[in-house]
Amino acid sequence: MSGKPKLYYFNGRGKMEPIRWLLAAAGVEFEEEFLETREQYEKLLQGGSLLFQQVPMVEIDGMRMVQTRAILSYIAAKYNLYGKDLKERALIDMYVGGTDDLMGFILMFPFLSAEDKEKQRAFIVQKATSRYFPAYEKVLKDRDFLVGNSFSWADVHLLEAILMVEEKKSDVLSGFPQLQAFKARISSIPTIKKFLEPGSQRKPVPDDKYVETVRRVLRMYYDVKAN
Amino acid sequence: MSGKPKLHYFNGRGRMEPIRWLLAAAGVEFEESFVEKKDDLTKLQKDGSLLFQQVPMVEIDGMKMVQSRAIANYIATKYNLYGKDLKERALIDMYVEGMFDLNEQLMSYNFQPADKKEQHFANVVDKATNRYFPVFEKVLKDHGQDFLVGNQLSRADVHLLDTILMAEEFKPDILAKFPLLQSFKARISNIPTIKKYLQPGSQRKPPIRPEEVPKVIAIFY
């Protein structure tokens, strides 16, 4: 056993990607086991590794953690990316809640029909530019990092969200100078810069192969609708 | 200003109810301001009170907090309902996120189109009795203690009681195969602050009535 956290998920972004980002940002090496077949999934189920029969699952510090938010909160606290006190933690939780909602609109995007994808793309951009980006733009007017003048989980999560929305509309940051500067600044933090380079464990935009694998392994998500 | 937390939401359970439960369990008095029509929400949005233009919003300790998980996390920590260390917190978070997943399914029943309701009901009962309740029954069985985590009351116990009661409203005998959850329910319901919250006249909200659904949709969508 290597002592490194071990991630169990599909070979793709999904709900595991924010966890990869956070571990990478913290400079923590991790291993991955990719679910490719139904048999692998059933083996995990039968072995009792999945508390609620679901992935993501992360083996870390002797625990088999499930539930994305639980895993993220644990990693953030362990690696000092959760603020210095309860009030900073509250701000981080609020900001991460927003970016989580925004990335949630993108999560099921690959599973939509071509027609629904166009609808959803418009929806994502509208929400990003009218609800979420303005909120973070305002916060960043007076500071380099979202909370407490130091790098936290909130910054990692926001960068991830920005990049994901840009994949849907490349000039989406055009009305948001603070976010543009934030993006450049956080991207050049050494651990993050490394994660953004080719060859890292960052996963690419989900493709049809990813969708097919998830459907085959979970036997779900055949009929997903746009928001 | 009273110094009490002030909750802004519609007059119903929704995403605010876990927060009401936590405050009540902690013995913290709170005030409520109800969003009854679209204008009420618009007013809050216009005066800059809502970080992401949404409720729940709770005024607490000089902050206008939004995002129900952020609010619940803050209250749980402040009132010592979040375990004693990082590992207990991890367990609590895992259990509570599972409960919230089940709650979402319970609550969304009333928002399903008529032709999907029966299937949805069957799915919810299946998930409750085959995925979620067996986990919590086993947790209690394995350690033999009165509370889910760390041998003391935590938010995990409070949220589980809420979930159990909502599931029973859905299907009254849903705990039939879960003797330890039945005794858990009785035990936690007897804690004085919780017992008080379960009595008529408390700030606990009733389940949404089908005729209220269009009004809620009109306010929020």
From TrEMBL, chain A:
Residues 3-83 form the GST N-terminal domain. InterPro entries: Glutathione-S-Trfase_C-like (IPR010987), Glutathione-S-Trfase_C_sf (IPR036282), Glutathione_S-Trfase (IPR040079), Glutathione_S-Trfase_N (IPR004045), GST_alpha (IPR003080), GST_C (IPR004046), GST_superfamily (IPR050213), Thioredoxin-like_sf (IPR036249). Its EC number is 2.5.1.18. It catalyses: RX + glutathione = an S-substituted glutathione + a halide anion + H(+). Transmembrane segments: none annotated. Keywords: Transferase. GO terms for molecular function: glutathione transferase activity. Belongs to the GST superfamily. Alpha family. Pfam families: GST_C, GST_N. Residues 85-207 form the GST C-terminal domain. This is Glutathione S-transferase. One of its GO terms (biological process) is xenobiotic metabolic process. PROSITE patterns: GST_CTER, GST_NTER. It is an enzyme of class 2 (transferase).
UniProtKB/TrEMBL annotation, chain B:
GO terms for biological process: glutathione metabolic process; xenobiotic metabolic process. Residues 3-83 form the GST N-terminal domain. Its EC number is 2.5.1.18. SUPFAM superfamilies: GST C-terminal domain-like, Thioredoxin-like. The keyword Phosphoprotein does not apply. Residues 85-208 form the GST C-terminal domain. This is glutathione transferase. It comes from Pipra filicauda (Wire-tailed manakin). The lineage of its organism: Eukaryota, Metazoa, Chordata, Craniata, Vertebrata.
